[in-house]
Design a protein that fits this description.
mainly alpha, 3-stranded mixed beta sheet, membrane, 524 residues, globular
Length: 524
Amino acid sequence: MPAAGFVTKGGKEYPGKLTPYVLATCIVAAMGGLIFGYDIGISGGVTSMPDFLKKFFPSVYRKEALDKSTNQYCKFDSVTLTLFTSSLYLAALIASIVASYVTRKLGRKLSMLFGGILFCAGALINAFARDVAMLIVGRILLGFGVGFANQSVPLYLSEMAPYKYRGSLNIGFQLSICIGILIANILNYFFAKLHDLGWRLSLGGAMVPAIIISVGSLILPDTPNSLIERGKPDEAMQKLKRVRGIDDVEDEFNDLVAASESSKKVDNPWRNLLQRKYRPHLTMAIAIPFFQQLTGINVIMFYAPVLFKTIGFKDNASLMSAVITGGVNVLATLVSIYGVDKWGRRFLFLEGGVQMFICQIVVAIFIGVKFGVSGNAENLPEWYAIVVVLFICIYVAAFAWSWGPLGWLVPSEIFPLEIRSAAQSVNVSVNMFFTFVIAQVFLTMLCHFKFGLFLFFAFFVVIMSVFVYFFLPETRGIPIEEMSIVWKNHWYWGKYIPDDDLPHGGYALEMGKGSNNGQATKTV
C-alpha cells in the first residue's frame, strides 16, 4: 500500500546550520538558471515581433500579418520557425552528456563556467545575425551553454545545502529560471517598440545572464563532495566545516568519503546505471523530466505571446500578458521555496497536478467555444480574454510550485555519488529531448489538435499525478548520502535495493502505519 509510512531508528542527523556563507554561495550558483529562463522568455517574444518575422521568416509574416482570414490555430505553423526555437534544446541534450564527464572529473564550477562562456558566444552571434543559418548556429551555442549549466547547477546546490534546507535552496535554481523568463518578457515588451533594432537587443541581452554565471562560477567554492571525488580530502574537510558553520562534521565527512570510495569502484557510471539496484533512480531520471515537459507548460511559456495573440490580443497586449504570467511564475515559486521542506515534495506534486488539470480543462472549453474547430472568430470580448488569462495564470502558479522546481530538485537529490553525474545527464538529456520535441511540434499540434491540445496535456497531468502517488517516495529531510533508505522502505522499489547498500552505520527499520507516504522518518 503506497501510503504506508516507515519509521527509522538510529538515523543520522548531521549537525550544521544555514550559514550566511552557504546561503550566499547557493544564491550565486542558482543564478545559473537565469540563462535558461531568459532564453525561454526571449525566444517566444522575438518570434512574435513583426520585424523579426519579416527579416527571417517572411512566409510566416505574410500569413500572420496580411491574411486576416486565416485559421487562428494555424497562423504560426512553420517548421523553420520552430526549428529556430527548438534547435537549442537538441544542442543542450548533447552538451549535457559531455557535461557529465566535466562535472565529475573537473568539478561542478568548471561546468558552470563552460556553460556561461558558450551561452555568451551564442547570444553574440544571434544579436548580429544576418540570416537563418547564423540564428541557428547561435541557438546551438546557447544550447551547449544551457546543457552545461542545467547539468551542474542543481547538483551543486543539492551538495552544498544542509539537508534540512536542501529543498528551499535548490529551488533557487527554478526561481532564477522564472526571474529570467520575467525579465525577458519585460524586455520584449519594450524592445518590440524599437523597429529593426528591438529583436537584436532582446537576443543580445542574453549576454548579461551569461556573464553573471561565468563570473559567479569563478568565485564560487567547490562542493566538499566534488573535492573528495577528485582526491582532495583535506581541502574537502575544511570546506565542509566552513559550509556547515561548525567543526563537528566528522560523521558527514566519513559518509562522503565512503560514498566516494564506492564511486571509484565504478569504471563506467553510464553502464552502472543499468544495474538492478539503480532501477528506481533511472526510472525517476527518465520519468520526472518526461512528465515535466508533458504538463504543457511549454505551450504557455515558450509561445505565451503567440498564444495570447492567437486568442485575440494585439501585439503589445500579448507581450504584456506574457509579463503577467511571468510575474505569477516568480511569486508561485516563492511559495514552493517556503513549503517544500515544510509540506514535502509529494504534497506539492499532487496539489499542483489537480490544479493544472482543472485549469487545462477550463481553458480548452473557453477556446473551444470561441474558436470551435474552424479556428475562425471575431475579436474576443474583453471579459472573455481576461478569464482565459486568469485560468492560465492559475495554471502557471500550479506548475511553478510543483512540477517546475521539483522536476529539478528531486532528481538532483536522489542519486548516489557513484552515478550522480551520469544520472543527472540522463535527467537533463530527457528534459531537453522532450523540450525539443514539444517545441518542434507544438505549433503543428495547435493547428491540428486545436483546442484539444489542452485536453491532450490534461490527460498526461492525470497520468503523472497517479505515477507520483504510487511510485515517488517522500525525500524531505533525508541526507543525500542516506537516500537509499527511502527506496528500501518503499512498497515497490524496496525489492531492488540490496541490504548491503544501506548507509554505513545503518538504520534499524520498522515498518509502520503512518501517513507520511514512504518517508523515512527519524526518531531520535
